[in-house]
Design brief:
This protein is mainly α. The protein is 60% helix and 0% strand. The chain has a domain of 93 residues.
Length: 133
């Protein structure tokens, strides 16, 4: 009986997805942290900034794994190509904020799709998916 009550309680709690609006607010906090400590930026000092960076860096790591696995079977994803730079975290935040600035205040769709669209526009790959004929 206790197990049944516990299961009902667990499934009665609505799931919470990370929204585009929350991502925007969190990334604004991260950007503020970068700006306020230009000498040694630490966007992880604020919980909201840390959540933005954690999401973006996790997204990028997940994409890198997917790209690696795809290449192992002869497929190149080429959705975006990140530069190797010391300020990559800041550039990720700026990319997402610039993209979200051109969206409605409460963008529809998944946060992952918003981030993918932002990164593909900011960091396009130099080579096309298929050779041009």
């Amino acid at each position: 009986m206790k197990l049944l009550v516990l299961l009902v309680a667990i499934f009665a709690i609505p799931a919470h997805a990370y929204s585009g609006k929350e991502l925007r607010e969190d990334c604004l906090a991260a950007e503020g942290s970068f700006a306020s400590s230009a000498a040694s930026p630490n966007a992880y000092q604020s919980p909201r900034g840390a959540r933005c960076l954690g999401y973006l860096e996790g997204f990028v790591d997940g994409y890198a794994v997917s790209d690696h696995l795809a290449e192992s079977v002869g497929v190149k994803l080429n959705a975006f190509c990140l530069p190797k730079s010391a300020d990559l975290s800041y550039r990720l935040v700026r990319s997402v904020l610039a993209y979200l600035d051109r969206q409605p205040p409460n963008p529809e769709g998944s946060t992952a799709a918003l981030v993918a669209a932002a990164l593909s526009r900011t960091f396009p790959c130099g080579e096309p998916l298929e050779p041009r004929r």
